[in-house]
Request: fold
Amino acid sequence: MKYAGFTSSFIIASMYTFLTFLVIYYMGYELTTKIYYPVLFIMETIEISIISDFKIIFIFLWSGIILKIMACDYYVIAYTFSKLTHIPYKKVVLLLGPSL
Reply:
């Protein structure tokens, strides 16, 4: 478990460092500080003949990550609420379901 955690942390840190270096090298630090999302700006400028718009694919993949995070948050909220109020977990899930 520790090995997988360290490996994934190293991969994410190296990808972030590489992307940051690439963005600053490609656009310069003056332009990078003025744009809110420089990585998306670079993705818009890259043209790939097979994929017409890379930004749509990036947003689609990112929405999957957001849904996973929301599911984990919903589980934690429902579990905590059921323990605090001593209401069975299944009833709490049905109670909190419409609030999504």
About this structure: The chain has a mean pLDDT of 81. The radius of gyration is 20 Å.
